[in-house]
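call fold(seq) -> tokens
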Amino acid sequence: MKTNGNNVTKPLFFTCGLAAALITAYTVSQMSSGTGKRDSVPDRLVAINTETQVGIDAETLASESATETSVVTSSVQATRTMPITLTDSNFVEQVLKSSKPVLVDAWAAWCIPCRAMAPAIDDLAEVFGRDAIVGKLNVDENPQVARALQIESLPTLLIFKDGRIVDQIVGMASKEKISQRLLAVVDADAA
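ret:
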């Protein structure tokens, strides 16, 4: 609880919930109108907002909002471009024969830096959806491709163009760094 100067208490979580609800409402309206940036507020905020905006009537608000949030979250995720899953069996078709540049994220479930970079990779799939392909290759489940590419460290990001590796990033990298490197290849491809 939070006490103001008049000894009136109000729940602190209500204030936080209202802010989350306003941010989420604005972000969802911007995304649905096509004018907002996709990465302005994390997806998890949309899912969290109903849990945080309790204060007036917790039971009613939670039950009504839970339905609305699941619908909003589903519609947002349904329109989002996600990375493709690369495997030993589809790698040649999806990467080597692609007419677009391809960013390959070589990762493993046990690799903590790989998991930390996953949201950035997902965002890049959305940003570059029309100009490039973004794919994720689980090296533990697809050892043939991992061996052929000589992946020795994780995370490893490879950028392919016309079936050849044109750039490589080994280790943790920021979304901005990856975006710049992929953009350079996309721009060169367009020229």
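The two ends are 60 Å apart (CA to CA).
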